[in-house]
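User: Show me sequence and structure for the first protein, then do the same for the second.

Assistant: Starting with the first protein.
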Amino acid sequence: MTDHLNDISPDSSCPQCGSPFTEPVKVTWWGGLLGPKLLHHTKCSECKYRFNSKTRQSNTTGIIIYSVVIFIVVFAVFYILRRG
């Protein structure tokens, strides 16, 4: 197939449909460039299911935690800048 597809082992297969063709997600609306790398966000090329390639579980909880932490950091920086 193409270079970006990955079929190296059964462990890299999609937990939803079993397809061996998965690829890392590069950019998302919730995490920009950094979030998908931190959460090992991967997308199945067949069924489009997105999951953590290390745990093979959904990243929903990780995405929520990541988003809350980023919100708190941005809010804290904004608050500090407004007070100073």
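Switching to the second protein now.
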Amino acid sequence: MAPAPASVPAGRPEAAGPSAPASAVGPAAPGLVAPASVSVGGPTAAPASAPGGPAPVAAPGPVPPAPGYGAVFRVREFRFVFVAHLFSLLGVVVSELALTVLVYDLTRSPLLSSLTFALGFLPYLVGGTLLAGLADRFPPRRILVVCDLVCAACVVLMTVPATPVAALLALRCAIAVVSPVFHGTRTATLADILGEGDLFVLGRSLLRIVSQSALLAGFAAGGLLLTVVPPRGALAVTAATFLASALLLRLGTVRRPARGGGDGESGLAGTWAVLRDRRVRALMVMFWVPPLFAVVPEALAAPYADEIGVSTAALGLLMCALPVGTITGELLAGSFLSAAARSRLVLPLAVTGVLPYLLYAVRPGVAPAAAALFLAGATGAYTLGLDARFVAAVPEERRGRAMTLMTAGTMTVQGVGMAGAGLAAEFVPVHAVVAGAGVVGTLCLLAAAAELRATEGRDGADRHVPHG
């Protein structure tokens, strides 16, 4: 599945500026050393000003280049985390597909088969709210390894022929419950490994890109595997991927102490301890609102293809367009934009994210619809700038809990969005549902952006964002 206390507590705006010492923003990538200060009185010191004369003005040092994705891979610990993410992601995707096929083979019930997928979203809310405090209460490496082992054990039990369908669904829920704790802990640990600056943002981006790529390749790999082995055999393979992830995290990451969870609260009280901070709450909402509406055309891709009378190959194009756009947008923003530029684009990209869905009002053909979905996906690059703001706004002692809540909310709203889209499509034509999501989503995003702007005006939050 799929993070030493950070060198400087989060939320210190003065530590993020271009003149801050390198240690203030985490470990520097090799070759990205900040220019040394000029020592007064040394060989290169500026001449002292005459009495009463103007003070000498120091020449600005060169602006260091943006680190880029290559610098992230030069951090040894991140390489282990990245490969472990690949293994755990493969385990999640293939186990979902194999379990869905297994449940259908045992019951011949489309409802129970589809419920298997739904159970991958809904328990996130339970795990994210009730178990979020674990991310700060125990050493992060221990949490990551234990979560992977729990998932492996659940999958092993699924492979037992005597396991009834109800138990299979319960085990699926168990995996979904621990998932937000795992992902929140891993994200918080990325800030320890990469620092709180641009390397953290790019590291998060890489993990998201891999997750989006899994939508394109993971189910294809799972389908191919199921042509060779039965569903329980495929589940056995995924158990091995979870174990591989646990081993990589155990051997490849540094043991760090628990952050402490200084509020001393757990469950819903601990959740509120994070959410009562207006700034953090506004940032979380900005993470949650776009995916709530973004999933609508994906959830209704098959009905829309049927509505306009196109083939299953065209359906595949509609399903792929959004994740391809997301991957493209993240890669371009991470490779070519500075941290300051990504910060400035957060609200424009987020607010316009579902506007392309308005094209569905005229029932477009496959090519225009795919283009609209691609553009909508590309606006997902707003998350790079939002990540930088979020890690700076959350106190370090609550970082694991906050990341867990953010992950749980993101997954939960996607499940809600899919369910809501399906319900609306029972009464309204599919193309109207997607276009309506574009209208309602844009209005909600404007409201979320206004709230985020209000917190910036109150707290001077622009100072939290490193400027390149």
